[in-house]
Amino acid sequence: MAPPKKPSKIKKDAKKFQKGKKKKKNKNKNAKTVPVDNRAVDSEWWDVFWKKNTPDPDCLAVSNVPNDEEECFKHFFRVSKRTFEYICSLVREDLISRPPSGLINIEGRLLSVEKQVAIALRRLASGESQVSVGASFGVGQSTVSQVTWRFIEAMEERARHHLKWPNSSQMERIKSGFEASSGLPNCCGAIDATHIVMTLPAVQTSDDWCDQENNYSMFVQGVVDFEMRFLDIVTGWPGGMPISRLLKFSGFYKLCESGGRLNGNVTMLSDGEETREYIVGGPSYPLLPWLITPFEGEELSVSMSEFNSILETARSASVKAFSQLKGGWRILNKVMWRPDKRKLPSIILVCCLLHNIIIDCGDSLHPDVALSSYHDSDYKGQICKQVDPAGRNIRDNLAKHLLGRKEMSVCT
Q1: Cys bridge to 266: 120, 171, 274, 408, which one at CB 3.0-4.6 A?
Q2: What is the DSSP letter of 103?
Q3: Predicted TM-score of the model (pTM)
């Protein structure tokens, strides 16, 4: 009979390892996450962020980061501290009502509402990678992704009132603003569109999404007031379609055609003609009774050329608005890497909401933030040949009115 085997050294070592594992597990159970009262205002995050991301005094001369604390805050997040606090108040309940789902920074603390909002704003404002944004806050890429999307969902729900069609009294103020800035009577807004460029996986590519410059892109169309506030936007449509077609697919077009919008007070022109409410657009748009575009052609009369100049002054509000939108929220101006086309419209909407909040709060973007060139600088302008006879008549009456007013001012 064979003698009984002694327990091998391997088995002994295995038992020691299992004991050590149990001790380790117990140790981890005792290590708890430091809770944060998300209803309290967290101001500590900014001090930490500022120290971490502001260059040494010796390097300030070659850095574009402002030395002043308030300016530095706006440089990183596009808004003043006061506007930042307002944004936090909008989304606070939504951000604290959902489980944190592992939103913990490197110190083992749950992320405060303020830090979550700051992370999301920095991601949208800079357009930098999630890894880069995370490094500046001491969090991981997945945390940046989750926090940003939670913020976007909350803003979609809580900040909608910052982007809506004006009521009749607000519209009268807008019309007065356009007339004061450009001279156009009864003008209710300016319309324009821009491309959001992206890369797509091969399985999602199609001619619809491939635009005239061979980029894959998504359109954003917006109507703005004289203060460059967005009053209406449409997005989600492929960048490969003509702008005139984009307009016709929009809810705004259907409302205007059915009389649901731009149906307010008419105004009497100097020659006794009445003019309805309208908006102005560039040559990419059709000439309609409620959408006035410039005269086209090589040989324009003096009154036509002067009308075009006045119309361009009014239309510049929409051009500047998109330059500020894409300059302020750089995520829209960079080539997006394989975005979810179902989520991208939400990101665009929230950037427009943030643009409007800055205006509504009496805040302003830093002058250097807006794009220095045209917001669609890589795209050649399209020309729409569609002309509605009633629209042509209104445009002629407006040109005649402006010329007559100019002659009267010269005489006096």
Answers
A1: 274
A2: -
A3: 0.87
Q: How many domains does the chain have?
A: 2
Identify which of 123, 114, 79 has the alpha carbon closest to the alpha carbon of residue 95. 114
Range of the domain at 269: 162-411
319 & 405 share domain: yes
> In sequence order, what are the residues at sequence separation of 6 or more whose Cβ sits closer than 8 angstroms to the Cβ of residue 55?
63, 65
pLDDT one-digit tens code per residue, 210-248: 998 899 999 999 999 999 999 999 999 999 999 999 999
In the block, tokens 């909008």 appear at: 90
According to DSSP, the residues that pair with 336 across neighbouring strands are 198
Percent of the chain with pLDDT over 90: 67
Of the candidates 98, 131, 158, which is a domain's last residue?
A: 158
Whether residue 1 is contained in a domain is answered as no
Closest CA to 245 of 57, 99, 382: 382
Check whether residue 210 and residue 143 sit in a common domain. no
Strand boundaries in 169-208, DSSP class E: 187-199
Mark whether 189 and 112 lie in a shared domain. no
Encode pLDDT of 130-139 as tens digits.
999 999 999 9
Query: Do 195 and 235 meet the contact criterion of CB atoms below 8 Å apart?
Result: no
Q: Please, is 263 exposed, middle or buried when counting C-beta atoms within 10 Å of its C-beta (0-12, 13-18, 19+)?
A: middle
Q: Is residue 167 part of a domain?
A: yes
